[in-house]
Amino acid sequence: MGKRKFHGPDGPGQSTMESAGAAARRPIQKLSEALLGRGSMDQQFTFAFRQENQLASFSARRVEVTMRKYLYTIALLYAADARGPLVVVEGAKLQTGTGNSSRVNRAGVSYMTGHEAAHFGIGTFTMQGRAVSTVAQEQVLAIAQAHGVKPSDIPTRFEANGYLVVQAMVLDADTYVAPAFINRTEGLQEVTRQHYMLGLLPILVPGSRAELERSLVTGGERAIHLLAAHNRAVVKPMEERLQQVLNGTAKEFLQDAADTANFLFNGQERDLLTAMIAMVKNTSSAGGEFHATIDLMKRRLPELAHDVAELADAAKAERV
What we know:
By secondary structure, the chain is an alpha+beta fold. It contains 10 helices and 7 strands.
């Protein structure tokens, strides 16, 4: 296989992104280049949430990245021929972007200013407190060392492993820049969603490539439903939080009106939650952009499962 460039979680030409800067990228870039080789990364994948009409596309992308994280976790365990792996869901372990936010007080009310780096993916699949993706990276390097493979030869000797592992790490680290109050609002919602993501576990590692592909399709469908349409995991927590904010039993996240670059949804958590609830509930034939994107994601799932299974099977063969 010829030398290729890695372009991010959607592949080349699929998205236009805004770089968070070299310093923010360096940790995952070093981890990735240990497998793909120096200069193999084209890692500019921090989006900026700057307009209200981006809500549907960003929300759908969060579902897709999380679903892909789950599929790549299954694929990595298959490539490692893992048996009975103890996988749990925790918070973020890898990150590409950085933020800059603070608080100001006006008439006794606290407002947020600036932006923060938010993860597209919800939660991280971990083993003993470490992301499965970084555990896999260490495993490949250890196998290479045991076989006497020089570091400079790893990208060619373990090429499939390199692309499989790095893709998983990128999905774990993928961030976007969002107004601070939006990041905090979504952060609260993630707590509940991470809890329900435990329903995707335990992971039963498939025994063959065909079984893996079927598992990825089934797992992808479950993850999409859980994160896009599940009433208890998605809708009810937002409705309950909105009611608490409206009746004054919860402190609302607010953005400073003077921070015009980040002043979306009137700078109020209540307006953001109202928009998010309406977006998720809009399941009519008209559907709206969010559900239209989710439907497309479902239709493309078999192709994604096929490609990931093929890569994982090649990676497994390389480890023998």
